[in-house]
Design goal:
The structure is a single chain. This protein is α/β, with parallel strands linked by helices. The chain contains 8 helices and 7 strands, in the order E-H-E-H-E-H-E-H-E-H-E-H-H-H-E. Strands 3-2-1-4-5-6-7 form a 7-stranded parallel beta sheet, sandwiched between helices. Helix 2 links the parallel strand 2 and strand 3. Helix 4 packs parallel to helix 5 and helix 6 crosses helix 7.
Length: about 260
Amino acid sequence: MELNLKGKKALVTGSNSGIGEGIAKCLAMEGAVVIIHGRNKKELQRVVNDITNAGGEAYFIEGDLRNDVDVIKIHDFTLKTLTQLDILVNNAGIFPKKGWLQSSPDEWLDIFNVNVVSMVRMIQAFLPQMKTLGWGRIIQIASVAGISPSPDLPAYGATKAANINMTISLAKELAGTGITVNTVSPGPIATKGTENLFMEVAMEKNWGTEWKTIEKKITQQMLPNLAGRFGTIEEVGKLVTFLASPEADYITAANFRIDGGRLVH
Protein backbone atom coordinates (compact mmCIF):
# COMPACT_ATOMS: atom_id res chain seq x y z
CA MET A 1 0.00 0.00 0.00
CA GLU A 2 1.27 3.46 -0.90
CA LEU A 3 0.95 5.62 2.23
CA ASN A 4 1.59 8.96 0.47
CA LEU A 5 3.90 10.25 3.17
CA LYS A 6 6.64 11.50 0.87
CA GLY A 7 7.50 15.06 1.83
CA LYS A 8 5.42 15.09 5.01
CA LYS A 9 7.22 16.60 8.00
CA ALA A 10 7.22 14.68 11.29
CA LEU A 11 8.56 15.00 14.83
CA VAL A 12 8.79 12.00 17.15
CA THR A 13 9.57 12.72 20.79
CA GLY A 14 11.82 10.31 22.67
CA SER A 15 13.07 8.82 19.41
CA ASN A 16 16.76 8.27 20.18
CA SER A 17 15.98 4.68 21.20
CA GLY A 18 13.28 2.05 21.59
CA ILE A 19 9.77 2.43 20.23
CA GLY A 20 10.30 6.08 19.31
CA GLU A 21 13.33 5.19 17.20
CA GLY A 22 11.34 2.50 15.43
CA ILE A 23 8.50 4.91 14.67
CA ALA A 24 10.89 7.55 13.32
CA LYS A 25 12.62 5.03 11.06
CA CYS A 26 9.31 3.70 9.70
CA LEU A 27 8.12 7.23 8.90
CA ALA A 28 11.42 7.99 7.16
CA MET A 29 11.23 4.79 5.13
CA GLU A 30 7.88 5.97 3.78
CA GLY A 31 9.39 9.28 2.69
CA ALA A 32 8.63 11.58 5.62
CA VAL A 33 11.27 14.04 6.78
CA VAL A 34 11.75 13.37 10.48
CA ILE A 35 12.99 15.33 13.49
CA ILE A 36 14.55 12.97 16.04
CA HIS A 37 14.22 14.16 19.63
CA GLY A 38 15.76 13.03 22.90
CA ARG A 39 18.33 13.84 25.56
CA ASN A 40 21.29 11.73 24.41
CA LYS A 41 23.23 13.50 21.65
CA LYS A 42 25.28 10.44 20.72
CA GLU A 43 22.18 8.30 20.27
CA LEU A 44 20.34 11.08 18.44
CA GLN A 45 23.19 11.32 15.92
CA ARG A 46 23.21 7.53 15.54
CA VAL A 47 19.52 7.42 14.63
CA VAL A 48 19.90 10.28 12.17
CA ASN A 49 22.87 8.50 10.58
CA ASP A 50 20.89 5.26 10.31
CA ILE A 51 18.07 7.07 8.52
CA THR A 52 20.27 9.07 6.15
CA ASN A 53 22.40 6.01 5.33
CA ALA A 54 19.17 4.23 4.35
CA GLY A 55 18.27 7.07 1.99
CA GLY A 56 15.96 9.03 4.27
CA GLU A 57 16.11 12.56 5.63
CA ALA A 58 16.31 13.33 9.34
CA TYR A 59 17.58 15.93 11.80
CA PHE A 60 17.89 15.91 15.56
CA ILE A 61 17.22 18.24 18.47
CA GLU A 62 18.05 17.74 22.14
CA GLY A 63 15.56 18.85 24.76
CA ASP A 64 13.87 18.11 28.06
CA LEU A 65 10.08 18.15 27.64
CA ARG A 66 9.61 18.76 31.37
CA ASN A 67 10.15 22.48 30.88
CA ASP A 68 8.67 25.17 28.66
CA VAL A 69 12.03 26.62 27.60
CA ASP A 70 13.21 23.44 25.88
CA VAL A 71 9.82 22.92 24.21
CA ILE A 72 10.07 26.43 22.72
CA LYS A 73 13.58 25.56 21.50
CA ILE A 74 12.29 22.35 19.90
CA HIS A 75 9.38 24.21 18.29
CA ASP A 76 11.59 26.92 16.83
CA PHE A 77 14.20 24.46 15.53
CA THR A 78 11.55 22.25 13.93
CA LEU A 79 9.77 25.04 12.07
CA LYS A 80 13.05 26.65 11.03
CA THR A 81 14.36 23.32 9.71
CA LEU A 82 11.19 21.89 8.17
CA THR A 83 9.13 25.12 7.63
CA GLN A 84 6.06 23.24 8.91
CA LEU A 85 5.04 20.21 10.95
CA ASP A 86 2.43 17.77 9.64
CA ILE A 87 2.84 14.89 12.08
CA LEU A 88 3.47 15.02 15.84
CA VAL A 89 4.10 11.72 17.63
CA ASN A 90 4.12 12.15 21.42
CA ASN A 91 6.17 9.14 22.45
CA ALA A 92 8.56 10.32 25.19
CA GLY A 93 7.86 8.93 28.63
CA ILE A 94 9.23 7.16 31.69
CA PHE A 95 8.05 4.09 33.60
CA PRO A 96 9.60 3.86 37.07
CA LYS A 97 8.75 0.52 38.65
CA LYS A 98 7.47 1.69 42.00
CA GLY A 99 4.41 0.45 43.86
CA TRP A 100 1.85 2.45 45.81
CA LEU A 101 3.86 2.68 49.01
CA GLN A 102 7.23 3.18 47.29
CA SER A 103 6.34 6.26 45.21
CA SER A 104 5.96 9.66 46.83
CA PRO A 105 3.46 12.34 45.75
CA ASP A 106 6.39 14.32 44.32
CA GLU A 107 7.36 11.32 42.18
CA TRP A 108 3.78 11.11 40.94
CA LEU A 109 3.95 14.79 39.99
CA ASP A 110 7.21 14.20 38.12
CA ILE A 111 5.91 11.26 36.07
CA PHE A 112 2.75 13.21 35.22
CA ASN A 113 4.95 16.09 34.07
CA VAL A 114 6.99 13.78 31.83
CA ASN A 115 4.21 11.52 30.52
CA VAL A 116 1.23 13.88 30.33
CA VAL A 117 2.11 17.56 30.65
CA SER A 118 4.99 17.21 28.17
CA MET A 119 2.46 16.07 25.58
CA VAL A 120 0.26 19.05 26.41
CA ARG A 121 3.27 21.35 25.91
CA MET A 122 4.05 19.84 22.51
CA ILE A 123 0.44 19.94 21.35
CA GLN A 124 0.00 23.56 22.38
CA ALA A 125 3.31 24.49 20.74
CA PHE A 126 2.58 22.97 17.32
CA LEU A 127 -1.20 22.94 16.99
CA PRO A 128 -1.62 26.59 15.90
CA GLN A 129 0.57 26.16 12.80
CA MET A 130 -0.90 22.72 12.10
CA LYS A 131 -4.34 24.34 12.00
CA THR A 132 -3.16 26.74 9.32
CA LEU A 133 -2.29 23.74 7.12
CA GLY A 134 -5.78 22.30 7.32
CA TRP A 135 -4.25 18.84 7.75
CA GLY A 136 -2.32 17.09 10.48
CA ARG A 137 -1.73 14.06 12.63
CA ILE A 138 -1.24 13.94 16.40
CA ILE A 139 -0.54 10.51 17.85
CA GLN A 140 -0.07 9.70 21.54
CA ILE A 141 1.90 6.59 22.50
CA ALA A 142 0.19 5.22 25.59
CA SER A 143 0.14 1.62 26.86
CA VAL A 144 -2.24 -1.19 27.68
CA ALA A 145 -1.45 -0.17 31.27
CA GLY A 146 -3.77 2.77 30.63
CA ILE A 147 -6.64 0.30 30.28
CA SER A 148 -5.55 -2.50 32.61
CA PRO A 149 -3.09 -1.01 35.14
CA SER A 150 -0.54 -3.00 37.08
CA PRO A 151 -0.21 -2.68 40.87
CA ASP A 152 3.56 -2.40 40.32
CA LEU A 153 3.25 0.72 38.16
CA PRO A 154 0.32 2.74 39.52
CA ALA A 155 1.58 6.18 38.52
CA TYR A 156 2.60 5.02 35.05
CA GLY A 157 -0.80 3.42 34.44
CA ALA A 158 -2.58 6.59 35.54
CA THR A 159 -0.54 8.69 33.09
CA LYS A 160 -1.27 6.32 30.22
CA ALA A 161 -5.00 6.49 31.01
CA ALA A 162 -4.66 10.27 30.86
CA ASN A 163 -3.01 10.00 27.43
CA ILE A 164 -5.94 7.98 26.09
CA ASN A 165 -8.45 10.43 27.59
CA MET A 166 -6.72 13.53 26.22
CA THR A 167 -6.71 12.07 22.71
CA ILE A 168 -10.50 11.85 22.70
CA SER A 169 -10.91 15.36 24.08
CA LEU A 170 -8.49 16.84 21.54
CA ALA A 171 -10.05 14.95 18.64
CA LYS A 172 -13.42 16.44 19.54
CA GLU A 173 -11.84 19.89 19.77
CA LEU A 174 -10.36 19.47 16.28
CA ALA A 175 -13.46 18.10 14.54
CA GLY A 176 -13.65 19.37 10.98
CA THR A 177 -10.12 20.82 10.93
CA GLY A 178 -8.47 18.05 8.91
CA ILE A 179 -6.34 17.10 11.93
CA THR A 180 -6.84 13.64 13.40
CA VAL A 181 -5.80 12.55 16.89
CA ASN A 182 -5.27 8.93 17.88
CA THR A 183 -3.61 6.80 20.55
CA VAL A 184 -1.46 3.70 20.11
CA SER A 185 -1.26 1.48 23.21
CA PRO A 186 1.47 -1.16 23.04
CA GLY A 187 1.56 -4.25 25.19
CA PRO A 188 4.89 -5.97 25.92
CA ILE A 189 7.35 -4.88 23.23
CA ALA A 190 10.88 -6.28 22.87
CA THR A 191 12.90 -3.10 23.35
CA LYS A 192 16.40 -3.20 24.82
CA GLY A 193 15.03 -1.78 28.05
CA THR A 194 12.35 -4.46 28.27
CA GLU A 195 14.81 -7.22 27.52
CA ASN A 196 17.23 -5.95 30.18
CA LEU A 197 14.41 -5.81 32.74
CA PHE A 198 13.30 -9.38 32.09
CA MET A 199 16.86 -10.70 31.91
CA GLU A 200 17.09 -9.71 35.57
CA VAL A 201 13.85 -11.60 36.26
CA ALA A 202 15.26 -14.59 34.39
CA MET A 203 18.37 -14.61 36.56
CA GLU A 204 16.23 -14.69 39.69
CA LYS A 205 14.17 -17.59 38.31
CA ASN A 206 17.09 -19.51 36.76
CA TRP A 207 15.64 -19.33 33.26
CA GLY A 208 19.02 -18.96 31.59
CA THR A 209 20.21 -16.11 29.34
CA GLU A 210 18.68 -17.02 25.95
CA TRP A 211 16.12 -14.30 25.11
CA LYS A 212 13.78 -16.60 23.15
CA THR A 213 13.51 -18.94 26.14
CA ILE A 214 12.95 -16.02 28.52
CA GLU A 215 10.35 -14.47 26.21
CA LYS A 216 8.43 -17.76 26.10
CA LYS A 217 8.49 -18.08 29.90
CA ILE A 218 7.34 -14.47 30.39
CA THR A 219 4.44 -14.81 27.94
CA GLN A 220 3.39 -18.09 29.50
CA GLN A 221 3.70 -17.24 33.18
CA MET A 222 3.72 -13.47 33.69
CA LEU A 223 2.34 -11.60 30.68
CA PRO A 224 0.22 -14.07 28.69
CA ASN A 225 -1.14 -13.05 25.31
CA LEU A 226 -2.75 -14.83 22.39
CA ALA A 227 0.28 -14.35 20.12
CA GLY A 228 2.58 -16.07 22.60
CA ARG A 229 5.41 -13.57 22.15
CA PHE A 230 6.47 -9.96 22.63
CA GLY A 231 5.69 -7.44 19.93
CA THR A 232 8.47 -5.82 17.93
CA ILE A 233 9.44 -2.17 17.66
CA GLU A 234 8.87 -2.40 13.90
CA GLU A 235 5.28 -3.58 14.37
CA VAL A 236 4.48 -0.53 16.49
CA GLY A 237 6.26 1.71 13.98
CA LYS A 238 4.22 0.38 11.07
CA LEU A 239 0.92 0.96 12.90
CA VAL A 240 1.86 4.53 13.82
CA THR A 241 3.06 5.21 10.28
CA PHE A 242 -0.28 4.11 8.84
CA LEU A 243 -2.18 6.32 11.28
CA ALA A 244 0.11 9.22 10.35
CA SER A 245 -0.66 8.82 6.66
CA PRO A 246 -3.38 10.36 4.46
CA GLU A 247 -4.78 6.82 4.13
CA ALA A 248 -6.03 7.10 7.74
CA ASP A 249 -8.15 10.23 7.18
CA TYR A 250 -11.31 8.58 8.54
CA ILE A 251 -9.69 7.42 11.78
CA THR A 252 -9.70 9.76 14.78
CA ALA A 253 -10.32 9.66 18.55
CA ALA A 254 -9.38 5.95 18.53
CA ASN A 255 -7.13 3.90 20.78
CA PHE A 256 -5.29 1.10 19.00
CA ARG A 257 -4.05 -1.73 21.20
CA ILE A 258 -1.05 -3.56 19.78
CA ASP A 259 -0.64 -6.21 22.44
CA GLY A 260 -0.98 -9.66 20.87
CA GLY A 261 -4.39 -10.02 22.54
CA ARG A 262 -2.93 -9.38 26.00
CA LEU A 263 -6.09 -7.73 27.36
CA VAL A 264 -8.31 -10.62 26.30
CA HIS A 265 -7.08 -12.51 29.38
